[in-house]
Amino acid sequence: MTSLAVFDFDRTIVDADSDATIITKLREKTPPPEWDNTNHDWTPYMSNVFEHAYSAGMHPDDILSSIASMPPTPGMERLLRRLADERWHVVLLTDANTVFVGHWLKEHGLEDKVTSVITNRAFFERGRLYIEPCMEQTVCRRCPRNLCKSLALAQHCDGRPPYQQVVYVGDGRNDYCPATSLPNQ
Ligand SMILES: [Mg+2]
Ligand SMILES: [Zn+2]
Fold first, then answer.
1. Which ligand is nearest to the CA of 173?
2. Which is the CATH superfamily of the domain at 4-180?
3. 117, 82, 89: which is closest to 101 by C-alpha?
4. Which ligand is nearest to the CA of 179?
5. Is 10 noted as a catalytic residue in this protein?
6. pLDDT digit string (tens) for 49-85?
7. Domain boundaries along the sequence of the chain
């Protein structure tokens, strides 16, 4: 039987925060957009950040090299390689986006160690970065609409044979929900 290891990305796989890294980089050129405290949806804010970055002349390469420069959490690369060697399924489940996570994994030679990445979809178009929500959920009230990690994990497991064991690693507020609904194994 296969086992599953689920990892958050920011401050878990990498010892940094990818969104904060880009916001800091943008701040070198222009003040980032204001964060509206009454809005709990992070994805529209990052979309706004990317628009500001584009207007400020931030090149896609500036964004990608900042992402690549984020250091891994000590021991994490070795852990991911070991899990892949032992044929674990490794899922990265994060409220970052496909461009950041995919680029970082590729630059660190870890792309083929990860079974799947579940996150908000992002893409460059004519030099601007766009982001789309991972999901539009209203089922779970404690998570934002764009991502409930419990739901995402259930969707991942749906239709697969049960895992022998499930290990979950994450540091953020949105890691609480899946931590309460892990299968008892
Ligand atoms: Mg995190
Ligand atoms: Zn949830």
1. 1
2. HAD superfamily/HAD-like (3.40.50.1000)
3. 117
4. 2
5. yes
6. 999 999 999 999 999 999 999 999 999 999 999 999 9
7. 4-180
